[in-house]
Amino acid sequence: MPFPDNFQELMSLRKKIILMLMFLATLSPAAEGREKEMKIALWKLPFNLPSMVAIENRTYEKAFAGEYKVEYITLPSGPKQVQAMAAGELDIAEGLGAASVIVAIANGVDITVIGANSRSPEAFAVAVKNSKITGISDLKGKKVAGLRGSVVHQLFVELLRKEGLTEKEVEFFPMPLNAAASALIAERVDAALLAGTEIIRAEKGGCRVIKDGRGIVEGLSLIAVRREFAEKNQAAIDKYLYTREKIRLETVNSSQKFIPLLKKETGLSEKEIKITLSKFNYDSRITESDIQELKKTAEYLKNENIIKLKPKINNILW
Question: Which positions carry the signal peptide feature in this UniProt record (predicted)?
Answer without folding.
Answer: none
